[in-house]
Amino acid sequence: MSALQFPCTIFKTQKKIEDYSASDMHCGDLSEFQLKRAFHLVDVSTRVNPYTLTKITPFNQPQSRFYGSRSEGEKISRQECAKILFDEFRHLSRTFSIYGPYSHLIEKMITHMQNGNGMPFQDTSLDSALKKHILNDNSKNNTRLLLTKVVGKNIDWGKGYFPLAQKKELTKAILRGKLPKFYRLQDSFNGMGITVHDVWATHIAIKSLHTENERYRALVNYKIQDHFGLDSEDISALKFNQFRFFRIWFLLQRYNLFGFKPFMTDMETTVEITGRRDEN
């Protein structure tokens, strides 16, 4: 019987890393007519009208009884309109990131959408959030804890290695568990729910495994990727469409006058698992 060689990938989601064809990665593909007719994006901003490229005054807001009259706001360029929309986008984001070590991330990611031209985004705070999520979760379906049991149970202690034939047990352990995602109650306020929330793709690998004196120590690497973008299903849902924050986001991304590119959010961390032979 041969030994499993490390590093070794033990799990990949069906959704792929670097999937730029995903529906929430589309940009600049919708007209003014489509945005208004299909998604009801009429009242988008309180500061500018992105369709007429004019600043909004108290008399040309959609809710004003003078709306539609000949008096219009100051005409502005497409670039100036986008700048104003992004400033409003950042301002509105504070409602979703009230406190905590990750509250700064959403504004940083909005600025990256504005200036990054679709380049991937990484931040040490995101990696730290992922690590804390994995280590602080002591529920029975935590993949880290499930792996801890399976590794110790299947090691060939006589030969001091993990058998290649038992690799499938590692994958089964992950499938029984719950992958780290940021939709806990605290994520609604600490900035992680609005920056990541769900996760598009996850890869899990065991980087190393050492056995000695009937104890083992392994390093497990989590690599996850999300998309900072909205698709049609997102904006059609009331929980998103009711907020001006998401209406501005969708318009900046999907309106053919702007077409700011969404991007991949990359997070990665490595955690240690340990155990004894007699624990299993």
TrEMBL record:
Superkingdom, natural source: Bacteria
Pfam families: DUF3289
Protein name (record): YPO3983 family protein
Organism: Erwinia plantamica
Lineage of origin: Bacteria, Pseudomonadati, Pseudomonadota, Gammaproteobacteria, Enterobacterales
